[in-house]
Amino acid sequence: MAHGAGGKASRKLVEGLFAPLLFGSTPGPLGDSAHIDINGSTVAITTDSFVVKPLRFPGGSIGELAVNGTVNDLAVSGARAEAVVVTFVLEAGLPTPVLEAEVRAMAKAARDAGVRIAGGDTKVVEHGKADQMYVTTTGIGRLLHGVTIDPSSVRVGDKILLSGPIGDHGITILLARGELDLEADLRSDTRSVLPLVETLVHAAGPGVRWMRDPTRGGAATSLNELARDCGLGMVLFEDQIPVRDTVRGACELLGLDPLHIANEGQFLAVVSPEYADAAINALSLAPGGGEAQVIGEVREQPAGTVLVTTRYGGSRIVDMLVGDPLPRIC
Amino acid sequence: MRFVDEFREPELISKTAEEIRRLAGSDRHYRLMEVCGGHTHAIYRFGLKDILPENIELIHGPGCPVCVLPMGRIDDGLSIAQNPDVIFAAFGDMMRVPGTQGSPLEHKARGMDVRIVYSPSDALKLARLNPEKHVMFFAIGFETTAPSTALTLMRAKAEGIHNFSVFCNHVTIIPAIRAILDSPDMRLDAFIGPGHVSTVIGCRPYEWIAQDQDKPIVVSGFEPLDMLQSIVMLLRQLKGREAKVENQYKRVVPWEGNRAALRAMAEVFQLRPYFEWRGLGFISQSALRLNDKYAAWDAEQRFEVPGIRVTDPKAAQCGEVLKGVLKPHQCKLFGRECTPEHPVGALMVSSEGSCAAYHNYEHRKAAMATSLTSIA
User: Fold this and answer.
1) Could you state, in order of their start, the residue ranges of all structural domains in chain B?
2) pLDDT higher than threshold 90 for residue A1
3) Domain ends where: A120, A143, A166?
C-alpha cells in the first residue's frame, strides 16, 4: 500500500521497476509530465489516477479533483492543459446520483480551468472489487512560453517559494473519513493552480527553475525529490511556512508533520534570487495567491537533503514520507 | 496557537539556553536520560541538540511502548485476527510495526480487517456497529493510555457488549527505569521524567530514584521551553549536590496523579508476574493484564494464543541503545540493514524510537560540512 502513498516506496517502485523497463535504462529526473515532440512542436502529457475516500469532502470531490489534479500536473511542468480524457472504473451498484454528481463536478472544474474533456471510457467491476469509483485521467497541454522547468538548473542561493498554506487537503480528508472523532472548520484546497503558475511565469519566467505540486507525500517529499535530483540542500525556515492554525492543531494532536500532508491546490517553485521579489509580489496580488511566501533557500549543504530550521536555533532533517501519515497516540 | 506558541518563544528559549550554558560550564560532562519516547521525538523534532552545549548528553530511554513490545506479541495478536470474523483495531502507532509475517498494515493489504482507532472507545464503537463481528483492540502504552483501555472495558461490561476484547500489552514505567538503573554498564547523572505518564501516576512513584539512587528527576512537558527549563532544574540540583523529584509540567501533572484514572486501572488490571521487553529482556511485575472480573473481555483467554517468542537478530544492538550505552548510529545495522522502511530492531519502528528519530531528523546533519549559524 505504501507504494501508492507518494513517498519513498512510490519512488522506489518508479525508479526500480517502471522507469528501467518502460523508459530505458537511465531515466533522468522524473517530472510531473512528459514532453513529446510531434512534427516539430512539443506537447506535455500526463496521467493520474484518483482513488480518494470519501468521494465527497468539504471543499471538493473526486470528480473535480481529477480535473484539477491533471491541470496542475501540467501547470507545474510548465504547460497549459488543453484537453483531458477520462476513464471511470465503477463498482457495480454505485448509485446513479453519486456518479452524476461527480460527472457534473468534473464538467464544472473543466469549465473553470478552461480545459476540454475530449473523451473517455467506462468500466464496471463486480461489487466488492472496487471501492465505489476510481477515476483515471490523461491530460495534454501546450508549453508555456518563457519558462523551462529543469531540476539540474537549480543553483545555490535560489529561493524556494510556496503558493499558500499547506496541509488543508490531507487533514480535511483525514477528518472527513470520520474515524478520528475530530472536527474542524477546514476545507480542501483543491483548485487549478494554472492561473497562479501563469502569473509566476509572467512575472519571473526566466528565473523559474523548478515547480511541483506537493500532493501525496506533501511538500517534504517534493523537496526531497528535488534535493536528490539536483544534489543540493533545501533549507526551510519553519516560521515562514504558511500553515493554518487548524491544520497545525490537528497535526500537533495527531503527531503529524504538515510538511508530509497532501495538498491539491498549492505549488512549490524554485526561483533565482534576483527574481524572487518580483515573483512574490506578483503572486501576492493575484487572486488566491495572497499567502504565497519564500519559505527557504537552496544551499550547498546538507547535500541531497531537506533541512528545516526554527526561529529559536534548532534544526531537523525532514525526510520523504514513508507510507501514509498515521496518527500517533501513545 | 495557544499552549504551543508560548512554549516556542525564541527569546525565552535563547535565555534559557544561555542559563543552561552558564550552569553546565565546561569542567564536566552531564548524562541526562529522557525516559519518555515523546521527549526523544521532541528533542529531534525541535532540534534541541543544536541549542544545548556539547557537554550535555541526552540519552534516550525506554519509554516508547511500540519499541519495547516484543515481536512475538504482535504475531500473537495478528494470529487471532486471522479469523475472518475478527476485526483487529489498534492505534496508528502500531500499524507499521513488523511481525514476522509483516506489519498490521501489510496484513490489511492482504485482506485482514485492520482498523486504525484514535482511542479504545472507538474500538468499542466498532463492536457496537458490527455485532456480527468480534472486535479485538490491541492495547499498547504505559500508564498514559492504560486508563482509557480500563474505562472502555468497564463500559463494555456495563453495557454487556461481548463481541469486544482487549489484547493487553500495557506496561508500567517504574520497573523499566529500575531495570535501566540496575544495569551495570549504565552511567547516568539525572532523569528527565515522563510527562504524560505522570499525569496519571503523579510524581511520588519517582521518589526512590532521588532517595535511594541519589539521582535528580524532573517531570517535564514536551515543548522546547519545557524541556530546556527541565534541564536547567536538573543542572541546578546537580550543581547543588541535591537529588529530588521536581515537577516542571505543573500545568498538566498533579503531584498526586489522577486518582480516577488510577481507580479505573485498579478495577480492571492486575500485574503480570513478568513480561518481556524488547531490548531489555524479562522484567518482573512490569506489565498489566486483565483481572478475573474482566476475563470475558480478555483476548488472551478468549482465543487460542500461540505464545510466539521471536528473538531479535543478534547483530541488532537494540538493548545497548535502549540503555544508552550506544548511540543509535553506533549500532552495526543502523542505516544499512535497519531503516525506517525496513526496521530490524524495535527502536527503528516508531518515530518515538531513538533510532527512527535519529535516522529521520539527525544523522545526515552530522555529516554536514558547513555550519548553520548563518541561517536567518
Assistant:
1) 5-65+173-247, 71-170+272-302, 318-362
2) no
3) A143
> How many A×B Cβ pairs under 8 Å?
131
- Least CB–CB distance from B1: residue in A8, A245, A311: A245
Is B118 in contact with A179 (Cβ distance < 8 A)?
Answer: yes
Distances (CA, A) of B167 to A243, B18, B138, B164, B273: 38, 48, 5, 10, 17
If one counts the domains in chain A, the total is 2
Structure ipTM: 0.78
Report yes or no on A288 lying in a domain: yes
Topology of the domain comprising B5-65+173-247: Rossmann fold (3.40.50)
At A2, is the pLDDT very low, low, confident or very high (cuts 50, 70, 90)? low
Q: What is the CA radius of gyration of chain A?
A: 19
Could you tell me the end-to-end alpha-carbon distance of chain A, in angstroms, rounded to an integer? Answer: 24
Check if A322 contacts B (Cβ < 8 Å).
yes
Q: Each residue of A190-231: pLDDT tens digit?
A: 999 999 999 999 999 999 999 999 998 999 999 999 999 999
- CATH assignment of the domain containing A58: 3.30.1330.10
Q: Provide the residue range defining the domain that includes A40.
A: 34-143
| A309 at B interface, C-beta within 8 A | yes
Q: Which fold has domain B71-170+272-302?
A: Rossmann fold (3.40.50)
At residue A226, the 3 state secondary structure works out as helix
Q: Are B353 and B37 in contact (CB under 8 A)?
A: yes
Helix B146-159, helix B259-268: angle, nearest 10: 60
Looking at the structure, tell me whether residues A169 and A302 fall in a common domain.
Answer: yes
* Position A20 confidence tier, pLDDT thresholds 50, 70, 90: confident
> A209 and A98 in one domain?
no
Q: Give the residue from chain B lying closest to A326, CA to CA.
A: B92
CA A323 to CA B342: how far, in whole Å?
12
Domain finish residue from A108, A143, A178: A143
Q: Does A273 touch chain B (CB under 8 A)?
A: no
- Alpha-carbon gap, residue B328 to B325, rounded angstroms: 10
Of A8, A309, A327, the CB nearest to B341: A8
Asked if residue A21 belongs to a domain, the reply is no
For residues A236 and A274, membership in a common domain is answered with yes
